[in-house]
């Protein structure tokens, strides 16, 4: 279970960043990265917290 929960968090964090950066071809501003990270934490805690 721990592995799958960890995978969910990583997916919540990385998937939006990959899309927004166009798979690493453009830089994402710090504020936008922070917003994505906060949204990932919020969603994860609502689901598993």
Give a verbal description of the structure.
There is one protein chain. This protein has 49 residues and is an all-alpha fold. It has one domain. It has helices at residues 2-20, 30-48. Helix 1 packs antiparallel against helix 2.
Distance between the termini: 14 Å
Query: Which stretches are low in confidence, meaning pLDDT under 50 for 5 or more residues running?
Result: none
Q: Helicity, in percent? A: over 70%
What series of H and E elements makes up the topology?
HH
Question: What fraction of the residues are assigned to beta strands by DSSP?
Answer: under 5%
Overall SS class: mainly alpha
Main sheet summary: none
Per DSSP E runs of 2 or more residues, the count of β-strands stands at 0
Radius of gyration using CA atoms only: 12 Å
SSE topology sketch:
Blueprint lengths: L1 H19 L9 H19 L1
Helix pairs in contact: 1-2
Question: Which characteristics define this entry?
Answer:
49 residues; 2 helices; mainly alpha
Produce a short descriptive summary.
With 49 residues, the chain is mostly helical. 78% of the residues lie in helices and 0% in strands. The protein has two helices and no strands.
């Amino acid at each position: 279970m721990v592995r799958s929960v960890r995978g969910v968090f990583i997916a919540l964090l990385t998937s939006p960043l990959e899309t927004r950066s166009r798979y690493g071809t453009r830089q994402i501003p710090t504020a936008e990265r922070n917003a994505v990270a906060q949204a990932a934490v919020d969603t994860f805690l609502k689901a598993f917290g």
